[in-house]
Amino acid sequence: MKFGHYTDKGLPESEIGYRCPGWDPMPEGKKNVVVLGCSHTYGVGHDNDTHWVHFLSQHNTTRLRYWNLGQPGASGDKIVRILYGTEKLLFPKIVIVCWPLWSRRERLEQYPLSLTSDNEFLKAETKQTDKQNFLKNVFLVEKFAEKNSCNTFHCFADESYQEHLKEVNVFKEYTIRNCWPYWDKFTQRVPYNEPSMASDGQHYGVEHHERFAKLFLDYFGRKLK
After folding, report:
1. Rounded average pLDDT over 107-118
2. 3-state secondary structure at position 136
3. Which of 38, 64, 191, 197 is most buried, by the most CB atoms less than 10 A from its CB?
4. Phi-psi region of 149 (alpha: psi -120 to 50; beta: other; left: phi over 0)
């Protein structure tokens, strides 16, 4: 099925590509886990083994196969469009969404445009419309999961909107941004006091990503099976 920029079998075209193996032919024998998000999930500024989805993907590998579908600049709108494109392509059974800032939108013209909060097209948006657009996208993720018998897990890259999510699996305490620096009295003599940065100097570095994946798995690991 395909209408406009939406399809249930095919991912949106991407200049940078997707940071996951090829799916043609689709490997057999494991449940497919799709991980969706923005540049923090794609791993901009990171090697293939230093972003949080890599660390996550080491969990329960005998039963699970992970697909990193994060895209730089992605909004919640684009995340949903990517997810719906996996229905008859990757046949996911676990969906993990690391939500970006809710001020972002996707404008569907001849070619889709990813818009961030400073874009002229978004000057009329408000915190209330940001919230409602976010909740719309959460609803669409959950309806996809209901239809396809998926388990869903929600977390956040930058700001957390956990207080707006009820009756879903949401990682409530940490984001990729705020999980580092931190103080661990058992392993440190000197407290960490500065964020770690990736090679591009703009995105968070490996310490953020590795700790975020560990915390996420401490919270949800027993459900990822």
Report:
1. 96
2. helix
3. 38
4. left
